[in-house]
Amino acid sequence: MSEAIKKAIQEGRTVLGLEFGSTRIKAVLVDESHQPVAQGNWDWENRLEDNIWTYSLEDIWQGLQGCYRSLSEDVQAKYGVGLEKLAALGFSGMMHGYMPFDAAGKLLVPFRTWRNTMTGEACGKLLKEFDFNIPQRWSIAHLYQAVLNGEEHVKEVAFFTTLAGYIHWRLSGEKVLGVGEASGMFPIDSETCDFDAGMIEKFDGLVAEKQFGWKLRDILPRVLCAGEKAGCLTPEGAKLLDPSGTLQAGAPMCPPEGDAGTGMTATNSVRKRTGNISAGTSIFSMVVTEKALAKVHEEIDMVTTPDGSPVAMVHCNNCTSDLNAWVNLFEEFLGKAPGGVKMDKNELYGLLYREALAADTDCGGLVAYNYFSGEPVTGLNEGRPMFVRTPDAKFTLANFMRSHLYSAMAALKIGNDILLKEEQVKVDSLTGHGGLFKTPVVGQQLMAAAMNAPVTVMDTASEGGAWGMAVLAAYMEEKAEGETLPDYLSDRIFAGQTGTTIAPKPEDVAGFDAFIEKYKSTLPAEKAAVEGLA
């Protein structure tokens, strides 16, 4: 088998997907059966500078090249050959955010990531103007807030895009986005698979008095649907990706997508009435809807699949960061024990997560808030992680861990209660992926309780968004005439795939509901902490 893979690599029949996550950049090389044959990784972290969450351009390029170098080294170690040619490639990244450039291609302000909650005024005005929910992390919210703030750079904007769009542009010369990623910049009309023309006109009217030298359509990327070609890797782009000069230019590139789109692809959740939950640094659910929602909800974003179908998204800024901090604290304690106790990090996570299953289903009166950063779903503009208990609460390790696992899912549950209970949206299947589900059973069982629906974790879930991006690139190259993305995924990618499904336990559902009531009742104290410590 390795000889066949070696030959496929040498002949340029493998496909590359690379995704910029919040804390890790990952590359996956897949063969003609769409199985990963090599991987690369690069760890990175955002920074808070001048009260803005950002990554520098140096961070971005160092991370891209480091991740690709890691992939190349994996190829060399496994197959004894260099990675010279590719059949296709695609890039993905954290959705949303704001990267504005002038006519010379200079970044006008530091990259403002999805994690920032600084655009509340703009969102309120745009919601009223569009009758459409514009979340704080969306690119258009950042642009309009900069307008409202009177920021000097706005008049110089010639193009603005997302992280994935920026990488694709520099490597291909094409200022484009996949429709799923584009739907996190500005509202999409699913009928045209393009930005909503009526809302663009309304936005231009909002800023007309400023007399900028641009119209919104002129500075937005061009929108493409899954399967369309989005340019080729240029000689300059090949050198940027692989400074060693080994990689050849010319490989076709698919539209750049966001982590939401690659998550939907990687979990076979692009068909109507399917959904997926991605749980890592942030947490979000995506449910492909059959029709528009009855009314606008600020807790729910309307985005699209990579092929343009409408999706109800509940996005929460915070998930595992606080959990990770507590696990690190327990690891530090073990290291300070007599003799020093060393424990594999995955084993430690497993031990603590499994302990949560022995807890009271309502956490015994313990409540945790995992807000490292602001959380728009619950109305907080800044992060203040907090753990709360009453004197008579049952303060056990099991309840402590369960409260923090519940906290990681709580804001998501609040948003989805609106979607599933109030809007009566129907969903036949939910698939989970991301770090929260890495320990078997635990995250899956508690998420099923949060959603009051069965949750499946597939065997391919660990491959993640980079693999999903590679699949989208393969779809561009392989699709038959008239073959839709849902059919391609079901018939070619996931046929015969297995996974585990856990149905919600009634006692867990009732316990989580009780926790949420206490969570909501204590929320004013969390908000007071933000105001008091600001």
Describe, in plain words, how this protein is organized in 3D:
The chain is an alpha/beta fold and 534 residues long. 40% of the residues lie in helices and 17% in strands. The protein has 17 helices and 22 strands. It has helices spanning 2-10, 57-79, 120-130, 139-148, 163-172, 179-182, 197-207, 216-219, 235-241, 259-266, 321-336, 345-356, 397-422, 442-451, 464-478, 485-493, 506-533; strands at 15-20, 24-30, 36-43, 47-49, 52-54, 88-93, 99-101, 159-161, 176-178, 188-189, 194-195, 222-224, 257-258, 274-279, 283-288, 301-304, 310-316, 367-369, 386-388, 429-433, 455-458, 499-502. It has a seven-stranded mixed sheet with strand order 16-17-15-14-20-21-22, sandwiched between helices. Helix 14 links the parallel strand 20 (429-433) and strand 21 (455-458). The chain is globular. The termini are far apart. The model has no long low-confidence stretch (mean pLDDT 94).
Give the key terms.
single chain, 534 residues, alpha/beta, 7-stranded mixed β-sheet, 5-stranded mixed β-sheet, 17 helices, 22 strands, globular
Characterize the largest beta sheet: strand count, sense, and whether it forms a barrel: 7 strands, mixed
- The radius of gyration computed from the alpha-carbon positions, rounded to a whole number of angstroms, is 23 Å
Tell me the β content.
Answer: 15-25%
**On the 0-100 scale, what is the average pLDDT?**
94
